[in-house]
Amino acid sequence: MNNRQARLFAIAATGVATLVFIGLTVDSHRQFPKLTNADTITAEVKHGMDVWHKYNCINCHTLFGEGAYYAPDLTKITQHRGEPYLKAYMRDPSKFYDEKIHRRLMPKQDLAEDEISDLIAFLDWVSKVDNQGWPPRPILVTGSFVPGADTLKTGGEQRSDLPPGARPVDSGDDERALGEQVFRGAVPACNACHSTAPGADMAGPTLAGVATRAAAIVASPDYQGQAQDARGYIRESIVSPSAHIVPGAMYSADGTSFMPTGYDGSLTDEQIDQLTAYLETLK
C-alpha cells in the first residue's frame, strides 16, 4: 500500500467510524425517553436531583457506577431500603450507628422535609431507569451483589424458581438449607440489612438469637400481632413487618417498620416457609 492508498484508507475508515458513532448516538437519544421512563419525571423528581447536587451527594456516593467510591452506590437504594428508613436516616444518620465506634460515616445535612421527600423521589426514579445491566455487579450497602436470576443453572438447565442471587441447590437439601439461600438471595437480600453474628447490628438488628427473641415477644403481654408461636412471629415479621413494633427499637418510625414490604409477593409461600425454617435455627 503506497502513501496515497494509506491516506485514502485512513480517510475512509474515519468516515465510516464517524457515521457509526453518529448513528449510535442518534439511536441512543431515540431510546432515552423509554429507557429512563421520561414520562415519570415529575417536579418532585427534578427538585430531588437539584437536592442531590446541592448537597454534593456525588462526592461520596455513586449513581450508575459514576461518582465517588467512598460510600455505597445508590442506583438501586430505594429497592433495598424502604421510604420510612430512608427518611429517618436522612434526618439524622448518627442514630443508626455509634460515632464513637464507627467514626462519622454520614454527615447530618439538616435537609428540609420536602428536600428529603423529593430526593427519595429522585432516587426512586433512578432505580427504575433501564440501565441495561450497568453497573454489571450492583453494589449493595453491605458490599455484596446480586447477580441476575438467569445466571442460575443446575444440571446445565436454567433455574427460574429461585430468587435472584440464590445458588442452585440439590433436591436433597433440607428446608433450612434452602432457607439460607433465600436469606442471601431474596430481593432485597436479607443479608443486605441483617447480620447473623451476635451484636452486629446493621441497617436492621442482628438475627443472632432471633428465634429465642421471637418466642419471648409472642409470650409478652405487649405483643400486638397475630402469631401464636415463634415460627408464626418470624413469618409475620417477613410478610407484615409493621404488625408488631418492638418498643424502643430504632428500626421503625411513626408505627411503621423500616423492614421492606412485599416479600409475600416476590417470594413464594414455600420460599417463605424455607426462610422461616432457617431463621428458627438462629437461637
Q: Report the CATH architecture of the largest domain.
A: Orthogonal Bundle
Number of strands: 6
**What's the level 1 CATH class of the largest domain?**
Mainly Alpha
Number of domains: 2
**What is the CATH topology assignment of the largest domain?**
Cytochrome Bc1 Complex, Chain D, domain 2
State the shape.
Answer: elongated
Helicity, in percent? 40-55%
The averaged pLDDT comes out at 83
Q: How many helix segments?
A: 11
Protein name: C-type cytochrome
Organism: Stutzerimonas kunmingensis
Keywords: Electron transport, Heme, Iron, Membrane, Metal-binding, Transmembrane, Transmembrane helix, Transport
GO molecular function, one term: heme binding
List the topology elements.
Elements: H1 3-35, H2 43-54, E1 62-63, E2 66-67, H3 77-80, H4 83-91, H5 99-102, H6 113-127, E3 153-154, E4 157-158, H7 175-185, H8 210-219, H9 230-239, E5 252-253, E6 256-257, H10 263-266, H11 269-279
Helix pairs in contact: 2-6, 4-6, 7-11, 8-9, 9-11
Provide a descriptive summary of the structure in words.
This protein has 283 residues and is mainly alpha-helical. It folds into two domains: 34-145, Cytochrome c-like domain (Cytochrome Bc1 Complex, Chain D, domain 2, Orthogonal Bundle); 158-279, Cytochrome Bc1 Complex, Chain D, domain 2, CATH 1.10.760. It is 43% helix and 4% strand. It has helices spanning 3-35, 43-54, 77-80, 83-91, 99-102, 113-127, 175-185, 210-219, 230-239, 263-266, 269-279; strands at residues 62-63, 66-67, 153-154, 157-158, 252-253, 256-257. The strands form three sheets. A two-stranded antiparallel sheet has the order 1-2. Helix 8 crosses helix 9 (230-239). The longest helix has 33 residues, at 3-35. The termini are far apart. Residues 141-173 have low confidence and may be disordered. The chain crosses the membrane at residues 6-26. It comes from Stutzerimonas kunmingensis.
